[in-house]
Amino acid sequence: MKHLYLLVVFIVLFSCTSKSSKPMTHKYTNALINETSPYLLQHAHNPVNWQPWNSKTLNQAKTENKLVLISIGYAACHWCHVMEHESFEDSLVAQTMNTNYINIKIDREERPDVDQVYMNAVQLMTGQGGWPLNIVALPDGRPVWGGTYFKKEQWISALNQIAELYKSNPEKLHEYANKLEQGIKSMDVVATNNNKPDFNKTFINNAVKKWSNSFDKHYGGTNRAPKFMMPNNYQFLLRYAYQNNNQDILNFVNLTLTKMAYGGLYDHIGGGFSRYSVDIKWHVPHFEKMLYDNAQLVSLYADAYQLTKNKLYKNVITETLNYVNNEMTTKNGAFYSSLDADSLNKNNELEEGAFYVWTKQELEHILKEDFLLFSNYYNVNDFGFWEHNNYVLIKNEDDNAFAEKHNISIEALQSYKTKWKQTLLEIRNKRPKPRLDDKTLTSWNALMLKAYVDAYRVLGEETYLASAEKNANFILNNQLQNDGSLFHNYKNGKSSINGFLEDYATTIEAFIALYEVTGEEKWLKTSRDLTNYTFDFFFDKTSNMFFFTSSKDEALVSRSVEYRDNVIAASNSIMANNLFRLSHYFDNEYFYNTATNMLNNVTLEMQDYPSGYSNWLNLMLNYTHPYYEVALVGNEAHKQLTELNKNYLPNKLIAVSKYENSMPLLKNRFTPDKTLIYVCVNKSCKLPVSKTKEALKLITKQ
Q: Signal sequence span per UniProt (predicted)?
């Protein structure tokens, strides 16, 4: 059942007030009013005495010897809003919380480090996790109880029992905290693999074979619901299929990408993807739109289009980037974080998906004589029905088949589609829009920066390159500090949180990609400098892995090492891939050996759960197949670069210069009045060629 609930104070936080309007007054205001996170500001007028996560708040808990209640969520989280309305806006609940606890609200997107520690704790305690994430901790921050969403009565009862136990028998809670602390610290320990690295094709083949047992052969993706899109899974499988001539795997990837693009998960009217599908056919989404999903999916569809030339994939790229440009881009080239799942419905109540869904009666009235064709195309029928007379638009066949079945030309169908989308978009935009989380996160911005680079590389659209460069300069000018470190967040001209490993890893990756389409060395050298910084402040010499947090940051219960790939690839797997590439660019043996050791450590777990290590498997392909260094030198180098980038070549990196250059891959290779292409493997180079076609013959997918 979908929860409907009244809009209370949110409209004040996110709408403009005219000069003649009287300022709104609130019965309650807490310390979150001074924060910039939209999620925290949503709770600034709760009767709960919320505090932000900082040393002052934590010290207060120790001084007063009070339990700490930590509640973690994010702006686009539907069930976070439900629990707020049911509990955190209730004065009786607030009285229980304020009397017995120091209450801390955390935006998980601003503080993924804190979120990870307490998520691990809740998973140990309950066997599952999610958001909202609610934890009770001792005054020193060590957790003793937790869970996700609680109904009001459950919440009050649990908090009263824990508070009473802390008064009557605190030793019991301290004993449990000690045990749980050890469990948390053990969850992200990476066992050092002292065996000699042995990366081979059989290992990868066996992993893919085991993984394929979970494939949904009808709708693509995994054979279960809910379905998350997991872009790094399909980036690897696409490459694996290509390099191993495995048509079955390629067919499965194409099936998945096609069904995702057909599904209600994809916004057929406005472009862009929702976060996940609640059903197996990608039909009904959890309606929030996240920047990181759309960024990674653009990169995935760009590579898939480059390999297959499937026009559907091209449309997904262009429509998604149009959506990002229209709804999630700032004037200075930064990107916002998300759009909420909830928006106001016709009854002026917040409802999940209200902005996106349609009734049959609405569509009949709007489309008139076009409705029958439209309803067949987007399944305004039993296949597309959701609930409460609402339909989520979904396709189930390709345009050519549909046009033939309905005896119209493909050109006529495209004309209909353009008209339908323009008409419905105009009407939809008159509805109350979902709330926007307008903070900027460096890591997610870097993912979208790379998405624009990948789209430009494949489609050659200059505006995409302009957007990529504008965002890259935003990161340089606003998020990169004088000491070489990065900030994690940005809003209203202010950055306040030190960067995490994910910020460095994704920015390095994006800047390398930007170098490979522009040849501007500053992007490559900045990547190297950021990498050196991570070695200074994030690297663990004992495990040869990188901590998620800098050694400059205040210590948490546990200093985690993120290495399992998820919806976003793990920061350590991205770093390992970066180190492999940078080792080639700068002939840096230490980078190469570190990447090798990192991959070797993770092989101990990869066979058990291959889909959780797809970005590591992608790195392993670099070791088990030829990996090409392509150097383009001369006056026509950038023209040759553009031609080369039109081809799907996942097993290569590119160095480029118009002039004499001292970089290892370019040194002593400049010849006046000539543009030459050098193709090398393992520091062994073929004779230079002058035409892109000749170079492509030297680069095999094997």
A: 1-21
Q: How far is CA 357 from CA 81, 287, 518, in A?
A: 20, 10, 42
- Report the distance separating Cα 116 and Cα 122, nearest Å: 10
Helices (H), 328-384: 360-367, 371-378
Give me the count of residues in the chain.
702
Closest by Cα among 161, 124, 130, 162 to 148: 130
Q: Please report the pLDDT score of residue 581 as a whole number.
A: 98
Question: What is d(CA 594, CA 162) in angstroms, rounded to the nearest whole number?
Answer: 46
Provide the pairing of β-strand 50-51 with 101-107: parallel
Would you say 560 and 546 are in contact if contact means Cβ atoms under 8 Å apart?
no
pTM over cut 0.90:
yes
Cβ atoms 141, 557 nearer than 8 A: yes
Distance, in Å, from the CA atom of 514 to the CA atom of 454, rounded to the nearest integer, reads 9
Q: How far apart are CA 126 and CA 568, in angstroms?
A: 24
Please report, for residues 356, 438, 542, 587, 680, the alpha-carbon distance to residue 539 in angstroms, rounded to integers and kept in the order given: 45, 32, 9, 20, 31
The one-character DSSP state at 435 is P
C-alpha dist (Å) from residue 389 to 262, 267, 281, 380 = 21, 19, 19, 11
On the question of a cis peptide bond just before residue 132, with omega within 30 degrees of 0, the verdict is: yes
Crossing angle for the helix pair 231-243 and 247-262, to the nearest 10 degrees = 150
Question: Residue 606 in contact with residue 644, Cβ under 8 Å?
Answer: no
Q: Could you tell me the end-to-end alpha-carbon distance of the chain, in angstroms, rounded to an integer?
A: 51
Confidence of residue 401 (pLDDT cuts 50, 70, 90): very high
pLDDT tier at 388, thresholds 50, 70, 90: confident
The answer to whether residues 238 and 297 touch, using CB atoms and an 8 Å cutoff, is no
**Structure tokens, 546:** 């990188």
